[in-house]
Here is the input.
Amino acid sequence: MNAFEASEVEAGAVVALAHGMTVATNALLERRGASTALVTTVGFRDVLEISRQNRPALYDLAQDRPPALVPRELRFTVEERMGPDGELIPLDETSLEAAVTAVEEADVEAVAVCLLFAFAHPEHERRVGEALREALPNVYVSLSSEVLPEFREYERFSTTTADAYLAPKLAAYLEKLAERMDEVGSPPPLIMQSSGGVTSVDDAVSDAAGCVLSGPAGGVVGAAYVGSLGGYPDLLTFDMGGTSTDVAPILAGEAQTTTETVVAGVPIKLPMVDVHTVSAGGGSIAWADAGGALRVGPHSAGAEPGPAAYDMGGSEPAVTDANLFLGYLADGTELGGEVVLRRGLSEKALAALGEKLGLTAEDVALGTVRVANAEMTRALRIVSVERGLDPREFALLAFGGAGGMHACALAEELGMQTVLVPRAGGVLSALGLAISDIRRDYVSPYLSPLGDVDAEEFERRFARMESTSDGELTDPEHTRRADLRYGGQSFELTVEADPFEKLEHRFHQAHERRYGYRMEDEAVELVNLRLISTVPVEKPGLTEPEAGDTAEAGEREANFDGEWMEVPVLDREKMGEGSEVEGPAIVEFRESTCVVRPGWRGVVDGVGTLVLEKDDG
Here is the structure.
């Protein structure tokens, strides 16, 4: 609503509105979701508590796991039992009535229903859901057979519980948003999902757990689009904001997804963009630990009071203070017309920390940037090297308010030769939202040795999912995938499933890329079939005007690796296609700044991306 007012765009003139948010993420991080109950098979109420044998810190005997989303006193059971082949013990109606009464007396806002083998035989679970919805019409009910029809009890319980825990909060927020849009004559908002596609408000609420990464997903989609238009389909994306940095791999122009995401200690086994987040951003605070070492983060100065330079009460130096002191940002820069950066305040905060460390303000500033870069480099290695990807074969696409200031340094650490800084780098997540396709994900469990799978049954199962999708979306495009593993493995890899004959070969290739070896003499098991259905939306072309007169906006003293030098400052708004830059230099974008380190040179391409290349010499 503020954007309509600030931009003076008529709400009725808007054709489409896409929205990404961190409501679900924050609710999990802060444990501020709805009060939730769990109904499960008798004897299994503690699955959420038992979880897996892995520990968050292997050698820390004092560290506890994050608490379960549902406390033990709100976990209720029914007498029933399904097995792999169907019903073993009928659902006992008396125990069902007792469970419904217990949930009613608990006065909760949501309830998750997770029965054994419900992913294969959901009849009992549906009956429990019916009874709860009939008796408690105002309570949100999540069924595991609808949220995640896959085997592995703990992950299924965890994901379904998260869905119930988040839905009431998400519904309240999104329904209010939709109501306001309707009042001003704007179309209903499309909501960004963690998988990298958008969906309606109703579908987002019914799949609340699938919106946990709604915020960062938009940036990854936008990065994939801009990179592909410029001829760079293989990317590592680097989104550095105020509190955190998000990194993700892009292969062949497509954002990669995973079903192994853990958010705030809660496994959510739904398809999500493969984003890794670290707490290193422009607002991350530099501090001295008990051993006298310089540390950065995870504490952040936030937007208020912000870094010391904001002059809003913050006294501790942040990464932004270090960048300002080193000359990468200009003293007196206005941010959004509300905040003015003051280098003197940054120097004072850096010097105060330096006294504790026995360092000068300059040394603290250089060290702060170096420590933050190390943390972000480690994150990029996790989504590349640890995924079997060689970062030297990728371009690094930097965006977010602070991404361009650190990109060249990170690329040097990883041996990467190309850095891309899009014109819309400061608002690339918004571009990603605007061009995201409408998307639905479907899964069908199919646990069988691959050699025993009947090709016709394989086709029939996909056809059933496609038929469901065709009834829910308008002329969707379908992508078939399958989860496979070697016999006895605990985790699967997802590969393209069409055609069926190439499935095993693709799995061997994927396994070798991810883990460095293949076992062609081992039996391969099929675990799940997955269908991605998308309805493409119209995407704008990106163009860049020809370069005009000089873009130089002056010079500024900046520090590179401990050496102060006078460097040119270029105004990105005055640059155009073909405009060149040679490091060391600073390019000031409308919403961000790019620091071109010595040994780098670049040119603006036809889609508005500043393409920086490392000099081999």
Remarks:
- Residues 440-535 form one domain.
- The chain has a mean pLDDT of 92.
